[in-house]
Amino acid sequence: MLTIYSDSHRLQHGRSELIDGTLKPCFETPSRADMVLAAVRQRDLGDVVHPRRHGLEPILRVHDEGYVRFLETAWQRWSEMGRDYDALPKMWQIRRLREAVPEYVEGQLCYYSMDCGTPITAGTWQAATASVDVALTGADRLIGGERAAFALTRPPGHHAARDYCGGYCFFNNAAIAAQALRDHGMHRVAVLDVDYHHGNGTQDIFYHRSDVLFLSIHGDPRTEYPFFLGFADEKGDGEGLGYNFNFPLAAGSCVSTWFFALDCALEQIARFGAEALVVSLGVDTFEGDPISRFQLGTPDFVTLGARLAALKLPTLFCLEGGYAVGPIGDNVVNVLAGFEARS
Ligand code: Q9C
Ligand code: ZN
């Protein structure tokens, strides 16, 4: 399987994250992508190519223009005020506060963020746009007739909605790629999110649409991030009613429970008649993940890949989460190798 990768991911390197009451080094690090790339090479998954630049147009197909312009200018405006540290919000536009977009950069940072764990740095814009290009180059390959591609996207994307960042995500790589597949003649596209956390951003983007089916298997938001979305009764709205499926599972759920949910999701994808599949591939479902609580073992990821291959669809994998840095490469490549073995 072809891998698309860009070194620009390294430009996103946040300093710290608030965990258990103290500032700790960010879990979402450049070493994650390095480890995945090393495993791709070591296990001879296939060629590794650089992305082609696609510009802002495909991003603006799913993201709000004000939000995109904010991200483009945020670091410049933030550092002009003499700040040399990561831009993180300290307040949110919660109930009964003004809804207008603030003018000042710090107010905008609060307005366009969902949490305080998604640092904007000097290199964020470059890294995030390169990550989108990685996903879009993968989509190009599918449009060109390839069976599958692996977009080694970092920073990840699935928590980024139309007009906010969060959960280490700035642009929704998988959603932008799914939209690009639609725009290039694929009539029905399914996005399956297997990251431990609910793909709130992707759900937000496609919630009112029937041409893109969204399905997510994740830790129950009653106890897990992102808390405010990802419940089973969210089924889509308007035209999109019946085209959104959430499979929240209790934190600590066992492997067979997880695979049962996967089977339910795959059945829906087959029923939908998808012409292409985008997989939001987070491996933070791994038993050793430091911030998540499912129990998949490294060999289980081979099974996941094989089950996905059984759909017989052109498939684009986009990397999302996974924070056990040592095993992340094997876990990701196991999915891709499991897929290839059954293709
Ligand atoms: N104690 C992705 O996997 N913080 N994002 C959780 C847990 C946010 C994860 C803190 C987790 C976001 C792409
Ligand atoms: Zn995650």
From TrEMBL:
One of its GO terms (biological process) is epigenetic regulation of gene expression. Pfam families: Hist_deacetyl. One of its GO terms (molecular function) is metal ion binding. Gene3D superfamilies: Histone deacetylase domain. Residues 28-336 form the Histone deacetylase domain. Its cofactor is Zn(2+). Keywords: Hydrolase, Metal-binding, Zinc. Belongs to the histone deacetylase family. This is Acetylpolyamine amidohydrolase. It comes from Chromobacterium amazonense.
